[in-house]
Amino acid sequence: MRHCESCKAGLEQYCYEGNIGTYNGNDVHLGGHTLGGYSAAITVDEKFVLNIPDNLPLDAAAPLLCAGITLYSPLMHWHAGPGKRVGVIGLGGLGHMGVKIARALGAHVVMITTSPEKAADAQKLGAHEVIISTDPAQMKAASKTLDLLMNTVSAAHDYNAYARLLRVDGVQVLLGVPPTDMPPPSVGRMIGNRLTLAASTIGGIRETQEMLDFCAAHNIVSDIEMIRMEQVNDAYERMLKGDVKYRFVIDMATLKAA
Amino acid sequence: MRHCESCKAGLEQYCYEGNIGTYNGNDVHLGGHTLGGYSAAITVDEKFVLNIPDNLPLDAAAPLLCAGITLYSPLMHWHAGPGKRVGVIGLGGLGHMGVKIARALGAHVVMITTSPEKAADAQKLGAHEVIISTDPAQMKAASKTLDLLMNTVSAAHDYNAYARLLRVDGVQVLLGVPPTDMPPPSVGRMIGNRLTLAASTIGGIRETQEMLDFCAAHNIVSDIEMIRMEQVNDAYERMLKGDVKYRFVIDMATLKAA
Q: Among A73, A214, A64, which residue's Cα sits nearest to residue B194?
């Protein structure tokens, strides 16, 4: 670790020797597994310490380190910005960060959701437009209008339906690993429009600090609901139902009380 | 046609209004369908006329207009060149052009084939290395060693097996549309290594001329077998069996005799 080509390029998440996840990774120093955000304390090498800018509240900044960088990294990698039409598929923990960051990058932001009731929230978060993907007329009208798609859906689904929204040379980035197989790619459509199916996971330390500084400059944090440690099981059940706007954060001061 | 964003960018093959294929396309001027290489004569707008450089023999240059540009365009688009390790999957009409052009671009060229008997030919054509993809040991040894894959296989197949050969940020370009569904993408591997699945078809007129000039400068033509018109049905049967090195070309002077 930290000497392969990926690590040298600041892409520790793609380490050729395998990274150690902050949560549930093999702890090579102490044995067992890492505890991530459930840790009471954590010891890391100074190269892996990040600075949370002073103007970001710690609670709402916490999800930036996962959802925030998960969207920031592919948005930067695929050049989201002024003149680009960026679709964000799914309005959850990842998706709401995608809308905020893509908007702050200067892109034209389109939320794509199965839920008509989420349209107003998406616009409040910064989406210029909303497409209800269960409405064939809306999907058809938006055919070949987007340059870049951030696909935050974590269940298996027909990503090819979203590819129809892409212009020539459009890119769809998969951000979730579904537990079951996805459908086959529509190769004909890909070839006929030079479409790209891409993928991305979190970001390296250098880019994560860049993301934090970017969020600080644009006053971006995650929308959170703070819970006490003893609520964690209820929160998990609610999360599975999508009943959270948009990330739960545990108040670690409640750990000892639990 | 010729006024959409793709056409203005020289990407007529990705015309938003639909291109007209030289072969078996709807002939909007005369009705019926276009006859491509079977035409005795063809009338096109001057913007669609190409110059075959004098040093290229017409017979062996003919397949450059299909197989040549089909490989040249994605090799250029995805920046094949010095320092890049480019794999070409499949040694047929497309694949043998991929080897020649990638080699001339200065890339390190690796032929990936199911057929051990094709290894010597691949090296003669310019491949620096050959991987026999049916040999698990060779495939494992080549894991994460390539930057770019030109996948010329036109039947449905497990393209995920080739993705294992890609380094972080590697790109696999699909060049054939299989008649049946491909397997699902291995999203986990894609996300874990920021891999890209891309696709491409032929090239625009500007890039096709650039390709012809490039081939002229590097003395590249297709390896062909010339046939008479009356042999076309036999040639088709042989082509289906892969019994051609690597493209049949019809001597059009034999058309009247047939």
A: A73
